[in-house]
From TrEMBL:
Every HTH araC/xylS-type domain range: 700-797
Gene Ontology MF terms: DNA-binding transcription factor activity; sequence-specific DNA binding
Keywords in alphabetical order: DNA-binding, Membrane, Transcription, Transcription regulation, Transmembrane, Transmembrane helix
Any Pfam family hit: HTH_18
Residues spanning the membrane: 32-55
Protein name: AraC-like DNA-binding protein
InterPro entries: Homeodomain-like_sf, HTH_AraC, HTH_AraC-typ_CS
Domain of life: Bacteria
Amino acid sequence: MEPTSRVRDMGRFFRLSGRWTRRQKGRFYRNSLMLILLIASIPGLITGIVMYGLVVNQMEKEFNQMHQNQIENRARNVDDQLAYLEMTLSHWAFEPRFGNALRTLDFVYFFKETQEIVTTLYVLQGSHPLIQSAQLYLREPQPILFNREYNELKDEAQFEAYDRYLSMGNHVYWTDWVSGQQETKQSLNSHPSLLHTGASDALVLVHKIPGESVNPFGALIITLDNQKIASLLKTLTPYDEGLTFLMDAEGNTLITGNTDVGAKDPAFEQQLKEAVALHKDSHSFLLKYEDQTYSVSSGSLSRIDADWTYVSAAPLTSVTSPVKLVSKIIVIASIGSLVLGLLLSWFASRRIYSPVARMVHLLTPGRNEAPAGVKLDEFQLLEQHWNELTSDRLTAHRQLQEQLPHLRDSFVLQLVQGHLYAYNEQDLRRRMTNLGFEVEGQQFLLLQMYFTGHVTLRERLGSRDTGLITFAAVNIIEEVAKGYFSQISVMNFHDLSSAMLIMAPEEHSLKPQALLWGEELMEVIHRTLKMQVTVVVSRPAATLQELPSLFVEMEQAVVYRSVEAGSQILDLDDEQCFNQTEGATYPLGLERDFIQALRLGKRDEAERGMEQFLTEVTRTDSTEFQVQQMMLQLLGSIQHVMLQTGVIPYQLFGGCNMYERLSSIREPAQMMQWMKEKVIRPYMQEIELRSQEPLKQVVERTMQYIDDNYSNDISLEACADLEQMTPYALSKAFKQISGMNFIDYLTQVRMETAKKLLRETSMKINDVASAVGYQHSYFNRIFKKQEGSTPSQYRDQWFTS
């Protein structure tokens, strides 16, 4: 090819590549730009959400909490002021000038005393800013009212109105009833000194006089300033919006704060009362009313004669208003960061697009329209891909070789256990071949091994290391099988049992060779692990699909092994191995003796009876199946005895299926150990606990008698007579139940009481000794013996320490 034509072709190639790049630029550019925009937007969104969630919500909670604390503090202030009014009025009510002498005093003649009473009422009225007026009403010697002056009540309506204060409430009480509001307009005009300026819901504090008398003849009446009380209540809602009021225990409104909501909408106040009644256990909650959420706080104000409840409702927007600006700033900052991220993403995508387009062109050479023969960049890309694929193939092959043994064992295990029933024979052989097995022209033989004698290894390996023992046995099986067979697969069941699949050519005599291998395996297992092994040999199989049924048949045949024959081989083709021998008969006499010992609570005798029973059932050539059946029958007899004695087996064994547990044990020695630990001993412990319950009650009564009568002369014989038993029996039971002797417990009770009297009283030593039931001389000796010092020294050490 001429150089000019080569240059022409190269130029055409790059022009075509450029056109491909421009054609593809739109879709790839949009995709990359959208991805970068999404990635850049996520941090801004997360930042905004996190800032809003952590900062705004936390600030909102803190402001709400501060609002609640503020209300509680102000409620305490209201409570303190009302309590101060109560205390002030009680102080004046007990003054001598308001005593019984007022009953007979001539107020006109004794002008000076009358003037002092008026002055005192002025002082009382000016003692607190909440007081609007202070009045003294006397029913005796005649209806008299002291307000700003001395007034004799001539009008019957006035007399009845003020006399009502003496019939209402306790000796000191609060009321919202104002006598001046019930008077007629004409009476008020004729007696302007009796006029009250309070609203209809003014609070009045009444203290009947004399203060110490049960038959009062007058009352000190304090009327509070409505406007000031309303202003004080308004502090419970530190905002221009909301509602605050006081109500009594019956839910009646006593006074309302100077707010707008309650006046404009009485239904809101009623709904607040209902909500507070529903939230008795919560002092603060949220209330939804007419598309507005209110933060409601309530609490109790304990007054001298009743409990009042204050209710404060403020719009939640007012409570959280300080955080609104912060919320807006965070939202604006989040939006700004998002917009900045979008701009930077667009700029970055523009900058990185050019090398990306070149990479796409190199990795997809088949899409360009370059003429054949011009494949410079394409060969480089293919070479790179080829090297990568070769490296990946070698790595995958190495990993496959490392995992192949596990895959082989796993596949064979699934095949033998019947999990691959959906595959036909051809599929199974193909999969076996892929795993490295040679299956064409082969016959198959299954062997299953059960290891017994585990009880003898407990001292070396422990009772729960069955997996470790099985692992060691499997390794031995593989080592011994290498000298006999060319293809094997050993399966570890981790429960003192395993299986092995043997594959050999069809013309080989596989069964005799397997029997010889079994003989050598039994010898090696016994010599190495000091255990016995039962080898079950199946019939040879020509197909893989026969193996699951053979495995099930082998599992059923193992119960025919003799429990006393040690290691043995069971051949499915040898019918003599599975002929039912008569074996041992069920030893009813030994069962009767064992049950009798169990019923009498003789633990050692019952365990010996269990050993004799198991020895008898295994004495002859009994199979594992026969031994298990007789042991299951014995377990049923034991549970029958338990039911007869009032012990429920289901509760005693914690709901465990004991028959299933016993059926899973193969060795007689393990059966005996299991029966002792899991059946006999729990039952004996339950019987012992039940037999000790009456004695426990006797000891508890005796200890209570000692605690109540330690200062008297107490003896073991006297306590035994009370319980109608011998002193020896009581002493033995006391020691067994309480862990200490009778006299030791009595001495301990007396010594503890004596030490308490020495520490907390100034009683003489002789009196302390008598108080705890000792003579003085004997008390000193026994106290020094018990505490290491005399009573006097003990008292001195206590007060000097």
